[in-house]
Amino acid sequence: MENKAYRILIADDEPDILEILSYNLAKEGYEIIQAKDGNEAIEKAKLVQPDLMILDILMPYKSGMEVCQILRLQPEFKDTLIIFLTALNDEAIHIRGLENGADDYINKPISPKVVTSRVNALFRRIKKSTEEDKALAVGNVIIDPIKFSVKVSGEEVMLAKKEFELLYLLASQPGRVFLRNEILNKVWGADVIVGDRTIDVHIRKIRQKMNLDCITTVKGVGYKFEFD
């Protein structure tokens, strides 16, 4: 199967969830690695370098949020996809997770079919990133989609995967206003359900990391990339 090249680390302290997710994703052809707590998740992630991690937020020793924060600080996990599993239907928790680098959220109780669909959707977006994409140079900003690198005045800026994809989309047509729904479909995909604040959180992080006010909010409409 074509998915065999992808490794998925699933970390959850509930054995039933580990087994059902592992079974369903293995049927799709993915290589599965399991972890029962936050410490084991970090240890195994460093060992196997997974392409995607499914992290339960409430785990022993270290929460999924802490695991995400720790690993995102290391360059080798900058582009690793991360999905949170949570029984906490709290917008503040969701926003915090997105700010710390999550790519998606799935609420418990889980549906194996939903999880599989979300995972497949994320990997489909990776496959769409081909070498036909060209580096963008706008002002003193250079965005290279092959290397997933952003440089401002020659200095590299570390962006999470979704932050990078969002910036690349906006910068691909400077001055054009991208509608919110259009951004969600092109960056997250129609198969992925994310909250209303998702784009706002990512835009704020991009502005902070680049230390540039080059993304303009068009109130009630969307966003555009401008560079004086």
UniProtKB/TrEMBL annotation:
UniProt DNA-binding region: 133-227
This protein's name: Phosphate regulon transcriptional regulatory protein PhoB
UniProt keyword annotations, A-Z: DNA-binding, Phosphoprotein, Transcription, Transcription regulation, Two-component regulatory system
SMART domains linked to this entry: REC, Trans_reg_C
Task of the protein: This protein is a positive regulator for the phosphate regulon. Transcription of this operon is positively regulated by PhoB and PhoR when phosphate is limited.
Any one GO biological process: regulation of DNA-templated transcription
Domain OmpR/PhoB-type stretches: 133-227
The Response regulatory domain, residue ranges: 7-123
Superkingdom to which the source organism belongs: Bacteria
InterPro entries: CheY-like_superfamily (IPR011006), OmpR/PhoB-type_DNA-bd (IPR001867), Sig_transdc_resp-reg_C-effctor (IPR016032), Sig_transdc_resp-reg_receiver (IPR001789), WalR-like (IPR039420), WH-like_DNA-bd_sf (IPR036388)
GO molecular-function terms, A-Z: phosphorelay response regulator activity; transcription cis-regulatory region binding
Gene Ontology CC annotations of this record: cytosol; protein-DNA complex
UniProt-listed Pfam families: Response_reg (PF00072), Trans_reg_C (PF00486)
Residues annotated with 4-aspartylphosphate modification: 56
Segments traversing the membrane: none
